[in-house]
Design a protein that fits this description.
alpha+beta, Dna Ligase, domain 1, six-stranded antiparallel sheet
Length: 158
């Protein structure tokens, strides 16, 4: 009987995690429909909250930044996050947070920031209520790397 209860509890947890991933992905897909402004950041993964707070992006020094004005590229970047949130690759999550990418999105007078670490497949979100963080897949890193390369943004090597 205990084994059955434990199995049922594990099933409920798995279903709720899948439902949460679907909800996060859906909210990101909605955001992809009409961002009015987007900024892509290349970040120094080493956090220095004392010096980077004033000029940095959520505690990380900015190596480069560029406004993304092309609507299809804006959509591609956000949908990459949505795809990763919907189907994370299932690998164990390393105990690090070394973000090398950031994304600032303005939509209808509301600002949302994403600090993205593909190394540990985690995103810290600011203004993306009710989520403060979520898990993604590392497969979407190439979308962000390609955008950074096209704009010749400097990058921090892993």
């Amino acid at each position: 009987m205990r084994a059955l209860v434990a199995l049922l509890a594990l099933s409920l947890v798995a279903c709720s995690k899948r439902a949460e991933r679907t909800t996060v992905a859906g909210a990101l897909e909605k955001l992809a429909d009409a961002p009015s402004r987007m900024v892509l950041y290349s970040l120094d993964p080493v956090a220095d909250f004392e010096t980077a707070q004033a000029k940095g992006f959520h505690g990380h020094d900015i190596l480069g930044r560029e406004d993304i004005t092309d609507a299809s590229e804006q959509r591609a970047l956000i949908l990459a996050l949505a795809s990763g949130a919907h189907e994370p690759d299932g690998r164990p999550i390393p105990l690090c947070f070394n973000p090398r990418h950031g994304l600032h999105v303005d939509q209808a007078g509301h600002s949302i920031d994403f600090v993205i670490c593909f190394e540990c497949i985690q995103v810290q979100a600011y203004g993306f209520k009710p989520w403060k963080e979520f898990i993604i897949s590392h497969w979407q890193q190439s979308t962000f790397d390609d955008s950074c390369r096209r704009r010749q943004l400097p990058s921090a090597l892993p």
